[in-house]
């Protein structure tokens, strides 16, 4: 079973406003709220691809109750979150014409030492039950910046593959523990190496630098431009078909879900890359954040080019 970890879940609110501009007043008739945060987008997409998923993390308040109620509706998803005193956050995505997006991400509540300890005890009990662990998203105030490092070490002790998709200091620290896979976007990779990456050869060099931490798969996501995947000494340039983008939010998370499913099913790497890339693209053509249509994924897989 795939276990997803969302340390900082979110009620994701999306607003479709074609001509959005800061400083004006807009009314929108097309909006939605989903159980979000990166790990919960991964959860929904991995279960839509047909895998059993257990979602865990930390939830609090009315927002936490909304998220659990939403997860109860998803086929193939079970959830077992630690309840905390704070209120789980909301994140806003304003999607304009052509799929442009403006995101406002709340920082989320501060976790108490007691609640953090409860989560770590809970996590330890889940590791051996997991075939693969996927941890995605930012961390809560009150958590050590090394939280992902600690979680990865506990998974590696039990030989459970650990996929990590986060940013900033949490990513820099998590990388040191050598997760099985990381998926930085270009901005996160530039922040990691501390320099602007001016061409694809430079991106590959930076990705290989990242892989030196014992990371088996380094996936550098490039939005509509596809991705670069580094696996040992092999470098793959992945190109996507052109699609009409409706809401790209959650496409990186959908890609991570595809990798988790491909690895859980022991697909070969090319097949896994195609499933991941098709899942990310399939999310972008849906209005709802972190959702895919399975037939669309299969149709898109045939159009993914891996060099
Ligand atoms: O990747 C999209 C998304 O899940 C948004 O829906 C929003 O929840 C955001 O990421 C949260 O990102 P963060 O890095 O704060 O966990």
TrEMBL record:
Pfam families: PfkB. One of its GO terms (molecular function) is ATP binding. Keywords: ATP-binding, Kinase, Nucleotide-binding, Transferase. CDD domains: FruK_PfkB_like. It catalyses: beta-D-fructose 1-phosphate + ATP = beta-D-fructose 1,6-bisphosphate + ADP + H(+). It comes from the Bacteria. The keyword Aminoacyl-tRNA synthetase does not apply. One of its GO terms (biological process) is carbohydrate catabolic process. It is an enzyme of class 2 (transferase). GO terms for cellular component: cytosol. Residues 11-291 form the Carbohydrate kinase PfkB domain. Its EC number is 2.7.1.56. Catalyzes the ATP-dependent phosphorylation of fructose-l-phosphate to fructose-l,6-bisphosphate. Belongs to the carbohydrate kinase PfkB family. This is 1-phosphofructokinase. It comes from Bacillus oleivorans.
